[in-house]
Amino acid sequence: MRHMVLALALVAVCGPAPAEEVGRVGVDWVGNDIIIDAFPDPKVQGVTCHVAYFERSVIDRLSQGNWFEDPSYSAVDCTKTGPITLGAIDRGEDGEQVFSERQSLVLKSLRVTRIYDEANNALIYLAHASEVTQGSGKMAISVIPLPAP
Terminus-to-terminus CA distance in the chain, angstroms? Predict the structure, then answer.
């Protein structure tokens, strides 16, 4: 029990989960790729998410200009990978960031936010771009039903 409390405290301090690249698909002749990363939810044991996003090649950056930015396109899917145990998650309606990947030098990042839907006993994972200059309407969601209380 003491080890579990220590592990949960460490996860709470660490912030968004580190991701591991599990796939890379080339999409065209200039070297643009779709990257697929996997990450465990840092505060919900038994949930792993996969997020896919676009990464521009050097050739594309040189030919298109806009050197420092990748598109906001993304997809997310989360799955139960073991018994689900909720840690000290944020239960507010604005949720809690569980993943972040930089999409530009300064202005934009791809984020995955977890939202707890208490009324429907589910966790919602929302992939979206966070931009300083303007928000992005490009998003994707994945929902994990929780075991009955």
Answer: 21
Q: Is 61 helix (H, G, I), strand (E, B) or coil?
A: helix
By the 10 Å C-beta count (0-12 exposed, 13-18 middle, 19+ buried), 83 is classed as: exposed
Selected residue with higher pLDDT from 29 and 133: 29
What is the pTM for the complete model shown?
A: 0.75
Q: How confident is the model at residue 4 (pLDDT cuts 50, 70, 90)?
A: very low
61 vs 32: CA distance, rounded Å? 10
Dist. CA 30–CA 53, nearest whole Å = 17
41 CB burial (10 A radius; 0-12, 13-18, 19+):
buried
pLDDT, tens only, 55-72: 776 776 677 776 666 666
Domain housing 8: 2-145
Total structural domains within the chain: 1
Given the structure tokens 């990978």, which residue do they identify? 81
Helix/strand/coil for 102: strand
Taking CA 13 as the corner, what is the angle to CA 147 and CA 80, rounded to the nearest 5 degrees?
25
DSSP 106: S
